[in-house]
Amino acid sequence: MMGKADGDNYTLDDMFVSSAAQREGEGRDEERMRSQAVAEGRRLAASLDQLGVSMTEGHCLISPLQHHCSATGLDEDIWSEMQLFRRTLVRMFESQELDCVFMETHMNPRRRQHMVLECIPLPRELGDMAPIYYKKAIMDCDEEWAMNKKVVNLSSKDIRQAVPRGLPYFAVDFGLQGGFAHVIENEQKFPHYFGK
User: Fold this and answer.
1) From CA 118, how far away is CA 147, in angstroms rounded?
2) Cβ pair 72, 106 in contact under 8 A
3) Which of 20, 40, 57, 181 could disulfide-link 171, Cβ–Cβ 3.0 to 4.6 Å?
4) How far apart are CA 75 and CA 93, in angstroms?
5) DSSP assignment, residue 85?
6) Full-prediction pTM beyond 0.85?
7) Which residues pair with 62 in a beta bridge?
8) How far apart, in whole angstroms, are the C-alpha atoms of residue 24 and residue 28?
9) Using one digit for the tens of pLDDT, what is the confidence trace for 58-103?
10) Neighbouring C-beta atoms of residue 31, cutoff 10 Å
11) Which residues lie closer than 8 Å to 64 by C-beta, 6 or more apart?
């Protein structure tokens, strides 16, 4: 039974009222999430960080409207719309004299979690140094001996061409420039908060 049963005093009418109140509450949650949306496209939505763990003002999330687990599984239409969102965000942050970093962590492919690309604005001084810091952090993370390359350079190709579909990975891009990717060898040892 839904709601709180109060012994013999809990009737069928009470159950319906409780159920309706619960649905109304869920509707408010969805309304709140929609109000946090910055932009919505045909296949993607960009929103402010809804988890309440925003790293900085302007930290936002780009996510496909339909369920996709990772960028390696996106079709061409969704990928091109994602690049459009990225270009728009980069221009917006450049007008505020900020750089931005785009990150995606795809772990536990069997759990089929929804894909989220994080956009984190940085002051220009940090943005200039970010590639050095991320490359060093990727070189030091995960297993010492790996089956895959530690650092995959994304300057001449995108993540869909660099990492085989279905493998867990971490990817970071610096504005509209390329970035780096890392195939995660041991998901139990790899921190889910890596790069943040």
Assistant:
1) 27
2) yes
3) 181
4) 27
5) H
6) no
7) 46, 117
8) 6
9) 888 888 888 888 888 888 999 999 999 899 999 999 999 999 999 9
10) 9
11) 43, 44, 74, 78, 82, 114, 115
